[in-house]
Amino acid sequence: MSQETAGHQWTYFLLALTTLLFRNENAFGEAGSGAMTETQVHAKAAELLKQMTLAEKAAQLSQLPGFPAPEFKENSDQTMEEILQTVGAGSVLWVSDPKEINRLQHVAVEKSRLHIPVLFGLDVIHGYHTIFPAPLAMASSWDPKMVEEAQTVAAQEARAAGIQWTFAPMVDIARDARWGRMIESAGEDPFLGAAMARAQVLGFQGRQIGAPDRVLACVKHFAGYGAADGGRDYDSSYIPEELMWNVYLPPFQAAVDAGVGSVMSAYMDLNDVPASGNRWLLREVLRESWKFPGFVVSDAFAVRSLKIHGYARDAQDASHKAFTAGLNMDMASGTYLKYLPLELEQNHVSMQQIDDAVRPILETKIRMGLFEHPYIEEPRLEQALNVPAHQELARKAAQRSMVLLRNEGALLPLDKSGGTIRSIAVIGPLGDAENDLLSMWGSMTKPGPTVSILRGIQEKAGSAIHVAYAHGPNLNRDIPSPFEGLAMVNMKEQPPQTSKQVREAVDEAVSLAKNSDVAILALGEIDLMSAESASRSSLKLSNGQQELLEAIAGTGKPVVLVLVNGRPLEVTWAAEHIPAILEAWYPGSQGGKAIADVLFGDANPAGHLPVSWPRSTGQLPLYYNHNLTQLPETAPDFKSRYWDILSTPLYPFGYGMSYTTFSFTNLRATPAARVGGTVDVSVDVTNTGSRGGDAVAQLYIHQRAGSASRPVRQLKGFERLALEPGKKQTVHFTLGKDELQFWSPAEKKWVVEPEQFDVWVGQDSAAQLHGEFRLTK
Question: What's the whole-number mean pLDDT along residues 333-350?
Answer without folding.
Answer: 97
